[in-house]
Amino acid sequence: MPDINLVSISPSQMIGSGESGPYDVSMFERKYLAQGDSWFSIGHIPPWSTTNLLQQMVLSRSAVAVNCARPGVELSHMTDTSTSQVFLNLLNGHIAWKWDAILMSGGGNDLIDAANTDPSQDPDVRVLLRADEWQASAPAPGRYVSESGWNTFTSHMEDVLKLLLDQRDKGINKGVPLLLHTYDHVTPRNAPAGPHLGPWLYKAMNDQYQVPPSDWNSLADALIDGLATMWLALAAKYSDQQITIVDSRGSTVRAVAGTSGMSNDWENEIHPTPQGYGKLDGGWRSALDALG
Fold first, then answer.
1. How many angstroms separate the CA atoms of 89 and 178, rounded?
2. pLDDT tens profile 24-83
3. For position 129, what pLDDT does the model report?
4. Superfamily classification of domain 4-290
5. Contacting residues for 266 by C-beta, under 8 A, at least 6 apart
6. Inter-residue contact 171 to 96 (CB < 8 Å)
7. CA 146 centroid distance within chain
8. Inter-residue contact 51 to 31 (CB < 8 Å)
9. Domain residue ranges of the chain, discontinuous segments joined by +
């Protein structure tokens, strides 16, 4: 099969503005609507020092993605009419197009926010436990995770997924395949994306919850794996809803602990380098090929 780069355009390019007319998406074999976080948009300042997953995607057919993603956005806000009106209009509104699939990058920021919940809050609303709540007899990394808080988190994410499916099924895109991805394993470290942009898990584990550094990687892996398990379980639960989960775990070489800049396949703590993103696209190609 040929190797064809996915073309990613903004909603304004598709709609056309000023002297530029609408972008002719009809020239492509496949047309996708994309929404999500920094893995689909910008993951570092200055932005040219990295890229995103869509820009690195190589597929078997000519395809265009109209990309509504914004850095830092949570999945819980991706169908919020106050912040994502363009996405909803392209999905089921007055400028809706019949898409071949909806591509989503989400859940990572929700997980980071949950990990950084103020330790003074009730364990039911945070995914990590304070030091005074750790059970010494429990093995790491499980001793650091609030089971009740994790249940709250996954229940909330299921509600968000159902809202997204409801929005999809309101109009001409009813039943269109929805693809989401897991995240690869990250190394908690003081490697921000720019001024006041991170770090993220490092802040939760070092500043908020004082987790021993020797357990940072295993705890981060447990959180990433827990999010992946959640997505896979929800896809199975709603198997009649055309949901595909692209599992990104194990694709990249993780950053070295204690580094503060680019390391192996990672530009900063939670965003891959262009090379790293390039290693993540294989699962997407297989999943999109499987749609026919």
1. 17
2. 888 999 999 999 988 998 766 665 566 899 999 999 999 999 999 887 665 665 556 556
3. 98
4. SGNH hydrolase (3.40.50.1110)
5. 186, 187, 191, 252, 254, 255, 272, 273, 276
6. yes
7. 22
8. no
9. 4-290
